[in-house]
């Protein structure tokens, strides 16, 4: 995975915080929180990792930037 968060530039292949992980019939579903506070839903399976959904960060939350 070579993408970055569109809100802060944090690399998607370095999850800032794993919120939850759930096994599925084909792999797992993982919710992760970025450094800026946005939440991603990821599907991890035989074909690799894919981001299914990405939320916006909380505009009032303190933010960390990766410097990218």
Features:
single chain; four-stranded antiparallel β-sheet; mainly beta
Structure in words:
The chain is mostly beta strands and 68 residues long. The protein has one domain. The protein contains no helices and four strands. It has strands at 17-24, 27-33, 39-45, 48-54. Strands 1-2-3-4 form a four-stranded antiparallel beta sheet, with no helix packed on it. The chain is globular and about 40 Å long. The two termini are 16 Å apart. The mean pLDDT is 86.
Tell me the span between the first and last alpha carbons.
16 Å
Average pLDDT, all residues: 86
In angstroms, what is the radius of gyration? 12 Å
Number of strands: 4
Roughly how much helix do the residues carry, as a percent range?
under 10%
> What's the total helix number?
0
Number of domains: 1
* Anisotropy-based shape: globular
Low-confidence stretches: none
The arrangement of helices and strands along the chain is EEEE
**Binned strand content:** 35-45%
Instruction: Sketch the major β-sheet.
Output: 4 strands, antiparallel
Strands across the major sheet, in which order?
A: 1-2-3-4
Oligomer: single chain
